[in-house]
Specification:
The chain is mainly beta. It contains three helices and 16 strands. It starts with a strand and ends with a helix. The relative contact order is 0.26. The N terminus is likely disordered.
Length: 288
């Protein structure tokens, strides 16, 4: 089988700390992991081999998920050729392939609350309270677990160590089991009123992309774990994935994509491929 070689140019991350080395060419691994990046940003080409699919370790996926009858799901055609042959086993699309580990409390300032980082921000960045607006309100944001996603060695096609650009890159937040999960809004749209593409979905997790691309190179990417993905949405994704990914499911801001499978939901957010700290108030929690 031929090996694809892709040339990618990195872009700036949002937060003021150095951008993490998790892009298409150097993605980090594991549910929310944060690693501080260097204060100097350089735009250098990176060549990587498109990896063969990696099997993920079994996760505690729900056996069945409720149907959200009020929701109707649609698809959008991609403007360019899909980057991925299939989503399963891809460490950039499925954060569970990378895995994550608890963040040492000594390197996680702010603990279970929001963190005030200095520096500029994007006024149109996704606002994570929209994930479960019925349960996440100002003064009621508490992270139950703090983790660091693992990096990915694209040459050896295997997991690396925890991303260190930020102290936390994946965090779990309290949402009651069965609580509805929705698409967090941003100031961006990808066409026809849609806010995101579903670039990966499994029974217990999915990945939302805030641009009309089958990659994590540009714009924002949100990984959600601990979910119970709506069966019709999952079936639509699986059908389009099997058909070659020329189209992918598209959702509008506020669309429900599933429910919480237990008492907490994991969130990892990326900017131009780099895993960021999901606790950053100025970026993802304005007004909280």
């Amino acid at each position: 089988m031929a090996t694809a070689i892709v040339l990618v140019f990195g872009a700036l991350g949002l937060l003021s700390s150095p951008a993490a080395t998790s892009r298409v060419a150097a993605a980090s691994d594991g549910p929310p992991l944060i690693e501080p990046a260097s204060a100097v940003h350089r735009y250098l080409p990176a060549v990587y081999r498109a990896p063969a699919p990696i099997s993920t370790a079994p996760t505690s996926a729900p056996t069945s998920c409720p149907s959200l009858a009020a929701e109707a799901y649609a698809a959008l055609a991609l403007p360019d050729r899909p980057l991925h042959v299939a989503g399963e086993g891809d460490p950039d699309l499925d954060v569970a392939v990378r895995r994550w580990e608890p963040a040492p409390l000594a390197v996680a300032p702010g603990g279970g609350g929001l963190v005030d980082y200095p520096g500029p921000t994007d006024g149109r960045a996704p606002q994570l309270a929209g994930l479960a607006p019925a349960y996440i309100t100002p003064g009621n944001v508490s992270f139950r677990g703090l983790y660091r996603v693992r990096d990915w060695d694209w040459v050896a096609n295997q997991r690396g160590g925890p991303i260190a650009a930020w102290p936390v890159t994946l965090a779990t937040i309290a949402v009651p089991a069965g609580g509805e999960l929705q698409v967090p809004d941003s100031g961006y749209r990808i066409g026809e009123g849609f806010a995101v593409l579903v670039i990966y979905a499994a029974t217990s997790r999915l990945t939302l992309k805030y641009t009309r691309d089958d990659d994590v190179v540009r714009g924002y990417t949100l990984h959600v774990t601990g979910a119970c993905v709506e069966p019709r949405l999952l079936a639509l994704y699986q059908r389009l994935d099997a058909a070659g990914r020329a189209q992918l499911p598209a959702l509008k801001a506020g669309d429900a994509f599933g429910t919480a499978s237990a008492a907490e939901v994991g969130i990892a957010i990326r900017d131009t491929g780099s895993f960021m700290d999901p606790r950053s108030r100025k970026d993802w929690w304005r007004g909280f």
